[in-house]
Fold:
Amino acid sequence: MTETSMHAFEIRDYLRKELMPHFMCPGCGHGIALRALLWALYELDIDKNNLAIVSGIGCSGRVGAYIDANTMHVNHGRPLAYATGLKLARPDLEVIVITGDGDCLAIGGNHLIHACRRNLNLTCIMLNNEIYGMTGGQVSPTTTVDRFTTTTPFGNHEPGFDSCKLAAAAGAGLVGREITLQVPALKNLIKEGITHPGFAFLEVISDCTEIYGRKNELGESPEMMLSQKASTRSDVYGNSVDQPFRPNAFETGVLTRNDRPEYADAYKQHMGRIMAASN
Amino acid sequence: MSTSTSAAVKREARLDTAVAEPTNVLIVGVGGQGVITVSKILAQLCLQNKLKVKQSEIHGMAKRGGAVFSHVRFGSEVYSPTIPLGQADILLALEWAEGLRWLSYLNPDSGTFISDTQMIIPPFSCRDRERGATSNYVHRTLDQVKQHVPNAFAVDATGMATELGNPRTANTVLLGMLSTALDFTVEDWQAIIAQSVPPKTLQVNQKAFVLGREWIQSDKHIAAREHVEEATPPAAPMVDNVVVDLEITEAWCKGCDICVKMCPERCLVLNSNEIVELTDPDACTGCRLCEWLCPDFAIAVHVQKIETTVAEHR
Structure:
């Protein structure tokens, strides 16, 4: 990363300025994730006209609307289904899905595992803030045990998903996780996901200060971000000595690479064989 | 003598003690330097002189190399354990950048600033640097400090202590300087130092104390001004090398406080409208942390690099 290219990155070139300031609450980590995505797009030199952003419903779904590119804001839980159709019809487009923990793992859980199984060349960025923020703070599939939400007034007793393990087991080509505090690392991870020829599932651990943080007394966003950092372990230190002391720490960085055939190629070959046979 | 008059006398006496403001000494430095030890010595000295003392410190995030500070307040009566902003009588800094960070605590009319010119450069100010580039360390000079406070002393205490034979006595050199600003006798100081240091190092510590005391009392600090200016961390390379311009879009800022709390130089604040404001442009090193972490894209850091070769820096 050189100073000159960093200097030239102007986030405003990628934003729909007439919609700014965005609707997210003060301190919401989704904005930081959006910056990292736009920075990655800048560094990969992706033309905005060849870029399609598909996003679902929720706070995360609204993130896509602020990007000055081709964007689709679709049904709850279905951005991966729309993106699959879009990518197969227009393989020349760079398709990126922005989704949230509820959108991706609960309402769209089935679409996620089948998108992972097909391994189509998409990038799925899941912004995980452990809550349904937009609708008033209901429990989500990633809410930590014993945390309070409006639907778990006595604490959440359900264990959460480890979405990265889920995606890896379902066959996603590349699986990674990063926190919003590590902006350059997050940008590099997104770059890696976009360039990966296959389905890339990236979990971004974001913070919901206003609804989740306040109800659980987790502090304001700086405190939440620092505690996220304390509860994660970078892949750089994968085998370091502190591993035994933090058995429950989330790992960050690129976690899994599955070397599997890409769906669009396989589909094209399959169709070719059928056409040849029918001729 | 009626009871009512004695009560009035008592009340007056109480008022007297309430009026008597404590002396405030703020000691700052970096983890591992001995900030706590220095403040302990001062607090013990006050106790032996039958004064009320309150000492409070933050060293939780220090480890080795983190910021540490200690408030020492003493007088006939002390209520709060912490020094209010702008009320410290003396700021004793064991490290140059830490001293500059705490300048706002110093009384702007009567405060005394005493700092070692030793630089302990934190790792994050070296990150992403090109080979041979200068660090993002603060680049203010003693003259700039003097614009804030009337009495400012910068001294190469570590260098003086090294000449004595033990660089670890730098804090004692600084204590010697501090002693000139407080009303305790030299004998008391020497006795408390003798109690606090390892017996092996007693002699060199006593020498260090005298050296520090003499340095301020004599005109040495005026005569040695050039030496001090030399010892003051270099201003030129940084200023010539990088020009930082912080662009804040006020309409986009939601006052979430992330940048204020994450800024390593603490040069940002939220103003009365809950909008971020750059209060200390000199302290900004252009590290871009605020720009990266702003969820609302309200901050843009423009770092202009002026081409100079490494050879020119030296």
User: Anything to note?
Assistant: The first helix of chain A runs from residue 3 to 8. Chain A is about 40% helix and 20% strand. The CA atoms of residues 1 and 169 of chain A lie 33 Å apart.
